[in-house]
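Continuing the series of single-chain predictions for the mutant panel. This is the parent chain; the variants come on the following pages.
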Amino acid sequence: MSPEQLDNIALEYKKKVKIYDKVVKICCGTGCISSGSLKLYDRFKDIINLEGLAAKVLVKKTGCHGLCERGPIVVFGDDEILYQSVGKRNVNEDVKSLIETIKSNKIADKLLYKGDDKTKRYVSPLDIPFYAGQNRIVLSLNGTIDPEDIDEYIQRGGYRALYKALKMNTDEIIDWVQKSGLRGRGGGGFPTGAKWRSCKDAEGQPKYILANGDEGDPGAFMDRSLMEGNPHAVLEGMIIGGYAIGSNQGYIYVRDEYPLAVNRLSKAIEKAREYGFLGRNIFNSGFKFDITIFRGGGAFVCGESTALMSSIEGKAGEPRAKYVHTVEKGLWEKPSNLNNVETWACVPHIINKGWEWFASIGTQGSKGTKVFSLVGKVKNTGLIEVPMGMTLREIIFGLGGGIQGDKKFKAVQTGGPSGGCIPAEYLEMPVDFDSLTKLGSMMGSGGMIVMDERNCMVDVARYFLTFLVEESCGKCTPCREGVRRMYEIVERICNGNGDKGDIEHLEELARAINLGSLCALGQSAPNPVLSTIKYFKDEYLAHIEDKKCPAGVCKALIKFSIVPEKCTGCTLCAHECPVKCITGKKKEVHTIDQAQCIRCGTCYDNCRFDAIKIE
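Parent structure:
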């Protein structure tokens, strides 16, 4: 393969697409597939054929477009029109409606994105606030290209960075990565260039390049969406890294619960080999490199570097003490460089556009952009990419559209189960690696869970401890026994059996677990408890001393009752109650049978007159 051949492939692809009057892109990431986008795609193709439009309209699948809340997403052309929730109620009707717009050159208003007041409708995704505030670099081709078509990736500039890198000195490449300020996107935030340099300088052969696609944080789907939507960007970054470090073999570790990512990565590797981007003598440089996918069993701890490498070696996925770094002795005790898939996908952009360009984005200590999965009680849940330094308020209220039901924002959990909960007083804080750490949280791989006034922070700590107890590999005692003990204490508090001194005991346990645990999972496991105690201690005290749950979540501590003065007898609560324990005639005050009530809060959440009281 030569650069001229790359140009020819790009030219041929352009010619192939140019014959179509319209390109229809249907999001076929896992989120939209779960909302029916594959059925939508098939129906679109069928009707296009039936209408005799196949020669004029190109229908293609893309990766995740980001606005998962409104899926399935359909985009016409290059971001000309975005349609949301297409086919959710009636596939045939929506498809016919969109095909009519193609024939009449009109717009289907009912499928456009609507503003908060339900009157303003947005046509181009570039105008929708969710997208308008983003700076999509790593995700720039997600939702645009067909991830299974290598020619389209090449037409969009793909594999040019690899060609350019192979003409550079290997030290120069590492210098560029170092000067760009790129830090690991998997959670650690370690300077990528420094890690590459250490691995290159380490003694021993062979050396290995590893990509971590084992994403296990609750609410996180950044890496999965990237592998599904633009697998070639990950491969290109890894090949460049292999050349710079002096490696000829790479592994991508993907959890088995990500079958679509495995499928698209496998096809991408096969095509890259066919085109000569993997294998021997890449771009006639004499450099050889190949990549193998390793499917992990889905253990959260296998996201940790040494556990991940043990798993590839065929051993139990357990961590080891890192007094010898993995860049010196990693996979099979050979020098190994592990970065997560987002980090690898940044590399081609740095090589193509220069380290100065990348370093010009972000904050002093955190350069570039970061991909987050924005989930929880926010209106627009989905996948976003923002420059480092954007404030929490801009992310949650700007891109996310604010809190569902216009309730009060309470906290945001960043960094997954090893991160922390940040309260409303820090909404103006710029988000980067260092600011999150200062607040007792962390960047993690990019999970961001928004919570409102109806979230109990003690219950939130219990939820994350439950996850960590189940996911601890059990190798070291502080993590295995200590986290379980913390869970038991918090569980007791939520059940109304908290004792004076429990908070101090939790803090003492947290210090011991942090100091004594073998790996980052155990060391950071107390973070959700410590951050909720730090910022929401009053809620712990209410549970322990007053035996009350202010948010109305912990069932042992609450009772729902009806305020007679406010009840209008609208009957909505009785209709929505799952156990039918609310009775009353229309326009008369209702009552709740306390013996039958399961304290789910459905009546409270649905009452429009504030007539349900939590006691």
